[in-house]
Amino acid sequence: GESVGLHLPTLSVQEGDNSIINCAYSNSASDYFIWYKQESGKGPQFIIDIRSNMDKRQGQRVTVLLNKTVKHLSLQIAATQPGDSAVYFCAESIYGQNFVFGPGTRLSVLP
Amino acid sequence: GAVVSQHPSWVICKSGTSVKIECRSLDFQATTMFWYRQFPKQSLMLMATSNEGSKATYEQGVEKDKFLINHASLTLSTLTVTSAHPEDSSFYICSASEGGAGEQYFGPGTRLTVT
Questions:
Q1: How confident is the model over A43-72, as pLDDT tens digits?
Q2: Is A60's Cβ below 8 Å from some Cβ in B?
Q3: How is residue A83 annotated by DSSP?
């Protein structure tokens, strides 16, 4: 049968508010990071990436912040919409090789 | 954008049988393909990395004789779960990359249920 997994941390936000999802990464040598969105029963979907020579990168409605000093990554979603409800994973890698995924955060958007 | 497909999307098999899962890059050449496994409410765990024409590199703890990976062309990689058991039931996801420090494009995943 299927294994019982860890309970995912959940972030609940009101529709229209901004969301901030945090991620602590493990390897100080990691130099490339990606945020993925995964809807139930589907594969991960690329949202935004950032390299270690940057501390901020903006996309459409999303911003990724990188703090290498404390090995912390965050994803900010502006004006959160119901379609943003999903599990969000950060992934770290060294030169794009062997991505290691974080545990994930479930984002629930409340009407 | 780059599209990666997987087939089948869901497979139910009996314990002891083998199952093959295909991963295809539809509009680009994937020099590297990755296979992940994801249990419910858990993150993706990398199983192996395969480069076209080379043997796959398996992560620690992944049995290479049980999870056979073939990357025979720049657009196709296959994962065969041999002698499947119920504990192999999981969501298997592949991703493909054109190489270098580039983005990985993920397939939709294959749900394997072993009865």
A1: 899 899 999 999 999 999 999 999 999 999
A2: no
A3: G
